[in-house]
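Slide 14.
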Amino acid sequence: MKRAIAFAGLAAGALALAGCDAMMGGGDAAAELDIPEVADGDISEATMIDITRELSSDAFGGRMPGTEGEELTVALLTERFAAAGLEPGNGDSWVQEVPLIEITGSNFAPLTITGGETALAFEYGSDWTGVTYREDAATQIANSEMVFVGYGVNAPERGWNDYEGVDVTGKTVVVLVNDPDWETEGLDGTFNGKAMTYYGRWSYKYEEAARQGAAAVLIVHDTEPASYPWSVVESSWGGPQAYAARGDNAPPMTTMNGWVQKEVAREILAAAGQDLDALTAAAKTEEFEAVELGLSASTSFQNSFRSFASQNVIGVLPGTEAPDEYVIHTAHWDHLGTCNPPAADGDDICNGAVDNATGTAALVALAEAHSKAGAPKRSLVFLAVTAEESGLLGAYYYASNPVFPLDQTVGGINMDAFLVAGASRDVTVVGPGKSQLDAFLEAALVADGRTATPNPNPEAGYYYRSDHFAFAKQGVPMLYVDGGEDLVEGGREAGAAVGAEYRENRYHGPKDEFDENWDWSGVMADLQLFYRLGRMMAMSESWPNWNDGDEFRGVRDESCASSDAGC
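Slide 15: predicted structure.
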């Protein structure tokens, strides 16, 4: 769930460039790094329009991995990468195969809760949703004892364990979304205050519950800390779900992972004689102890399976002086296929025009511009990854099986969902202050005459929600910079309105469609910034690292220490 939603939480005003040093770790970092000046690139707006239009057309069926829409997408990208002057990125091939399994649930029984004065029954879709990661023809949760485990966090380095003193083996855990101090105004706290850590992500909560032996997980959906409405949960977890194929010695997993509406959770807890608000308040404290609810959960559904190989598409512009050093650009080409539920007019294709036909088109437009300018010193990699909507699967697969060694990858830029809102005075920096790449960003902003706004709602954890995160976990410094919020026409109020309209009416829905009347001026300005950033890194001799104390610094240092080349 991406930055387009972030417009809803507009907070601090845009920072003037002179005030960005503290936010982004500039100043001294810029003095230590080789950051060359770069001329403007010749970036084609026609390319952006044509590719976004085509990728988001009904003919591509919503670009679900493993469908005809994938075949059309891969064919289009390989053709356009070649025409842009790139070379195949995987030896003689333009693609990297990503083994996936698609699981489609059906015949969902109601979620029934027993043990209270009266049995409760909740309907799939409107009240709850659930999926399985297991390759079982039938999934059944039968009279599974329920335990409320607060935020479901086990973080020994932070002195926090919501599972302490309770055995949840075979049970259903009820978990709150985000992490305990998400409502903090500042960024100081056990879990970085207002800024979400990985402990706040739904993926972590499922992983930890599985490590604890739980049979099922029900995350309590709440729009503000989740940063997206229930409709996004319903559409994202409904229909076919793709997962990476599991090899030997795979980590444990639950039988079912699911969500419940907040008011459903309130009703369930009331049946146990508990109050959701009181338990939520208790869960924010270090003294919290898990609560056995004295209730049991039951549901069931059927599953069908399809094993297939999806594809990452990779093109490279080899460097002239250091071809074995790489700067990477990433964007995901996939979307959701069909939407569940469909729109009121019956339209059920999730076209994904903004998310992420725009970012995919940007890969081609930037490749064209760099090729026109001539290859830089270092190689430029353009990577269109699959299955982002299923959990960054294509990015994770590449990061675990890199075509170009990660210790020879200088850093990168991720592009995910350009909200076509017109020109802005600023850009939004997601995850500022993490790496020395911020110094490159500062220099590029100065050259473009724009300002930086820190992520307006860091509690949403956007840095952990897109493809760059897979590379960051492996130590590669990555920038995630989005379009601005201070629009030239209408300022922040207009930016908020555009974001709210997209979030409420189009995001992960059938109305995320191409519009011939879009104003591309803001997108093109952002692409100019990304062009300058990529070229600065590719013409530099520096190896930017994560800042001291960042969670990814140790991984990068270890990777570099074991390498005879690259960083």
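Speaker note: DSSP finds 17 helices and 21 strands in the chain.
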